[in-house]
Amino acid sequence: MGAPRCLIALLACLFLVEEVEPKVEFTNFKCTSLDPKFAIVEHCYLKSVNRTYKYLALKINLLQKPVTRIKVNGATWKRFNGYKPSLYNVTIDACKFLKNPKSNPVADYIHRLFRTYSNMNHSCPFNHDVIIDKLPISFVNNQVTAVLPVPPGDYMFQSHWYAYDINRATVQVYLTIF
């Protein structure tokens, strides 16, 4: 007699418990031009339109076009008493990668986080400025929590952009996963 009541009580509790979904929030965004004669950062910011619509925007003006050789070093960092290297540190030839995105699954995953909202979706040469236009946190949230789940914590994604083997810019995206 007692076992069925316990089972019913357990099932009732399960129906009352709200399902908690992971959530991603941008916490900071930094872009730095290391060679102002080659490229300048026109804008690099996070914007909170309201409680549910937040986005990231970036525009880097390339001053020496066309750019035909680009390498990108991307690394993930997790905050443990300061930011420590976490899981990935990858350097790719961006021109080769953009011709064949499936050649590097890690770079492809990171590229898919912003590709739809960017003009960085073709192979070299780049004859235009680099733009990420209104990348919404809701899109990133889906990619980071549903497509490839990432454990909760504070993270930084840092990228170094090399043109002709010279480090020209760095971009850092800070986010929290709840």
Question: Which secondary structure elements does this structure contain, and how are they paired or packed?
Answer:
Blueprint: H1 2-16, E1 24-33, E2 39-48, E3 54-62, E4 70-79, E5 83-93, H2 94-99, H3 105-112, E6 130-136, H4 137-147, E7 153-163, E8 166-177
Antiparallel strand pairs: 1-8, 2-3, 3-6, 4-5, 4-7, 7-8
Considering the chains and any ligands shown, give keywords for the structure.
about 180 residues, three-stranded antiparallel beta sheet, Ganglioside M2 Activator Protein, Chain: A, Drosophila melanogaster, alpha+beta, signal, single chain, five-stranded antiparallel beta sheet, 8 strands, DUF1091, about 20% helix
Q: Your description of this structure?
A:
- The strands form 2 sheets. A 5-stranded antiparallel sheet has the order 1-8-7-4-5. It has a 3-stranded antiparallel sheet with strand order 2-3-6.
- The N and C termini lie far apart (41 Å).
- It has a single domain (22-177), classed as Ganglioside GM2 activator (Ganglioside M2 Activator Protein, Chain: A).
- Residues 13-20 have low confidence and may be disordered.
- The protein is globular and about 70 Å long.
- A hairpin with a 5-residue loop joins strand 2 (39-48) and strand 3.
- It has 178 residues and is of the alpha+beta class.
- The protein has helices at 2-16, 94-99, 105-112, 137-147, and strands at residues 24-33, 39-48, 54-62, 70-79, 83-93, 130-136, 153-163, 166-177.
